[in-house]
Amino acid sequence: MSDIDLDGTVVTMTGASVGLGRAMSLALAAAGARVVLAAPEADLLEGVAAEIDAKAGRGRALAVRTDITVRGDCDRLLAESIRRFGRLDVLVNNARRPVRGPGIPPAGNFLPFWESNPDIWQESVHVNVNGTFLMSHVVAPHLIRNGWGRIVNINTSLGGLSQGRNSPYGVTKAALESATLIWAADLAGTGVTVNSLLPGGACDTDPNRPPDPKLKLWPVDIMNSAIVWLASKLSDGKTGGRYIGRLWDESLPPGAAAAGAMTPPALRTAGD
User: Fold this and answer.
1) How far apart are CA 114 and CA 182, in angstroms?
2) What is the C-alpha separation between 183 and 196, in angstroms, rounded?
3) I want to staple 16 with a disulfide (CB 3.0 to 4.6 A). Which of 8, 9, 37, 229 is the partner?
4) Is 169 considered catalytic here?
5) Is residue 24 part of a domain?
6) Tens digit of pLDDT for each residue in 102-155?
7) Residue 249 sits in which domain range?
8) Beta strands in the chain, from DSSP E residues, in sequence order
9) Do the bridges between strand 262-263 and strand 242-244 make them parallel or antiparallel, or are there none, so unpaired?
10) How many other CB atoms are found less than 10 A from the CB of residue 182?
11) Residue 271, in any domain of the structure
C-alpha cells in the first residue's frame, strides 16, 4: 500500500463489523484516518474498534450501533462523529443485507426471481437502496457545508448486475450504480465526490459460502489501497467513477494505479 497520509480525515464505514467493511476500516485507520464504525452488531463493532486501537493507536475508532434503514440512527451516527472527532469527511456505503444466512437456502438467495422470498426481496431493497440513500441524505449536507467530502458506494461486478438468479442483490446494486452517477452530477462543484468501488469478483468474506473449488476468491483486503486513495485529497475532482480493487497495481504510484483500476460506469455507454 502507498504512503498516503489520512491524518485529520474522518471516515464513516457502514457494515464495518465484518468482511470488506472491517478490512477497509483497518486500512483507513492504518493510513491515519479516524474511523466511525457503523453496523447493527455492537459486539462485533467493539471488536473491530479494539483491533484498530491495537494496530493503529488508541482513539482512532468509534463504534456506533447503527441501523441505516432508521433515519434517527443515521442522524445519531453523524452527530456522534462530530461529537468525538469534530467532523465527518468520508462516507463509505458498504452495508448490505446478506445473501446467505438464517432463513435463506444453503446456496444463498440465488433463485429465479419468481421463487424469491418476497420478504427477503423487500428487506434487501430496504437495506441496500433505501438505507444507503438515508445515510447519504443525512451526511451530504454536512459535506457540502465543509466544501470537501467523499461518498463511496460499494458495488459489484457487471456480471452481478445482469446474471440470472442474482436478484434482488443485483437489482439493488444496479440501483446504486445509477445513484452514484446521479449523486455525482448533483454534487458537481461542491467539492464532494461520489464514486463506486468494487472488489472485481467474489471475496473470501462469507463463512456460509458453500465450498467451490472452481471459484476463485479474492482476499478480503482487495479494496484497501483503492479506498485509502478515494478517501484522500489525491482523488480530488474524480467523481462518477467505477473503481475495481483487483485491478489496482501496487507497483504504480497511487494516481496511476487508480487510473488503471477505473472502468467506465456500467450504465453509461458511448452515444447515450
Assistant:
1) 30
2) 11
3) 37
4) yes
5) yes
6) 888 777 888 999 999 899 999 999 999 999 999 999 999 999 999 999 999 999
7) 10-263
8) 10-14, 34-39, 61-65, 90-93, 149-154, 192-198, 242-244, 262-263
9) antiparallel
10) 13
11) no
